[in-house]
Design a protein that fits this description.
With about 300 residues, the protein is an alpha/beta fold. The protein has a domain at about 5-165 and about 200-225: Rossmann fold (3-Layer(aba) Sandwich). About 40% of the residues lie in helices and about 15% in strands. It is built from 11 helices and 11 strands. It has helices at about 15-25, 60, 85-105, 140-155, 170-180, 200-215, 230-240, 255-265, 265-275, 280-285, 295-309; strands spanning about 5-10, 30-35, 45-50, 65-70, 110, 125, 155-160, 165, 200, 220-225, 280. A 7-stranded parallel beta sheet has the order 3-2-1-4-5-7-10, sandwiched between helices. Strands 6-11 form a two-stranded parallel ribbon. Strands 8-9 form a two-stranded parallel ribbon. Helix 1 links the parallel strand 1 (about 5-10) and strand 2. Helix 5 packs across helix 7 (about 230-240). The longest helix has 21 residues, at about 85-105. The mean pLDDT is about 90. This is NAD-dependent epimerase/dehydratase family protein.
């Protein structure tokens, strides 16, 4: 596959920036599809500007393209984005891009979906690809509907459902956790037992390369998660290890911590920190994907890289 041309959407976002670098490093030529005129990101072999929600003519953008990696879309937000916005950005834009790809005879369409297409913010037991998908919010439903649209178009498609993604420049919950780890104070989190699956950008990029290189059609969804599922105290310890420090964790009853979260309007934060979301990547492993870093190694590397900035 080396030297083949990949069309990448979302190249200016957190995941897309990493993918542009990693795909280029793997020897792919990468043409970025941008929503508005901006400076072409470093590492791109070319760029085309257009609106994915209204692709009037994508033939030039997809000319000669061997595969598409579609990472653009409206991200999950706890504040509650209107369902129509998710429908436009995550379902319709994906469907129209895939239809254009089918007309252009693009070889493979790789869609960055989400574990939220499979389950809610927590789940009993281990989530696997054989479980019926049960999204619990508009974001998850939009990702699942986009996957279903791909299946109906008749293109060779694959969807990756990553769990919480982390890497340099990360935002949201992981950025908040990193800020917490940087504080000099002991943290009363040692008693929290909820386990959460993670995936680093290095490991997610490797998963994308795995499905790009796979010979033969795929036409299915894969969970993307590292084998470990650390507890929150384990995550803090790994981050602080990357900072050259000890864990600095002290016990506190989970009920007391939960009460503090409820009183400060952070009930969902408590649910995320105290409950389980453990997922298994059986399908990717069967294709030969093997994570480059453990979760502990990846979190320590994240802390070191962000400190160096």
């Amino acid at each position: 596959m080396s030297g083949e041309l990949i069309a990448l959407t979302g190249a200016t976002g957190f995941i897309g920036r990493h993918l542009l670098r990693s795909l280029s490093a793997e020897g792919y030529r990468v043409r970025v599809l941008l929503r508005r005129p901006v400076e072409v990101p470093a590492g791109a072999s070319g760029a085309v500007v257009g609106d994915l929600s209204r692709p009037m003519n994508m033939s030039a953008a997809l000319a000669g393209v061997d595969a598409i990696v579609h990472s653009a879309g409206l991200a999950h937000a706890m504040s509650g984005t209107p369902e129509d916005d998710y429908r436009s950005s995550n379902i319709e834009a994906t469907r129209r891009l895939a239809e254009a790809a089918a007309r252009a005879r693009v070889g493979r369409f790789v869609f960055l979906s989400s574990i939220r297409a499979q389950t809610g913010i927590s789940a009993p037991g281990i989530v696997t690809e054989t479980d019926p998908p049960r999204p619990t919010d508009a974001y998850g439903r939009s990702k699942l509907a986009a996957e279903q649209a791909l299946a109906d178009i008749g293109i060779d498609w694959v969807a990756l459902r990553p769990v919480l993604v982390y890497g340099g420049g990360v935002k949201g919950n992981m950025a908040a956790l990193l800020r917490l780890a940087r504080t000099p104070y002991p943290l009363p989190l040692a008693s929290l037992t909820g386990r959460r699956s993670l995936i680093s950008m290095e490991n997610l990029s490797a998963a994308i390369v795995t499905v790009l290189r796979h010979q033969g059609s795929l036409g299915r969804s894969f969970i993307a998660a590292e084998p470990e599922a650390p507890r929150l105290p384990d995550m803090i310890a790994a981050l602080r290890s990357g900072l050259g420090r000890g864990p600095g964790l002290v016990p506190c009853p989970a009920s007391l911590f939960g009460l503090a979260c409820r009183l400060t309007g952070r009930q969902e934060v408590f649910e995320r920190l105290s409950s389980d979301l453990v997922a298994r990547s059986d399908g990717l492993s069967a294709l030969g994907w093997s994570p480059k870093l453990t979760s502990s190694e990846g979190l320590a590397a994240l802390a070191r890289s962000e400190t160096a900035l």
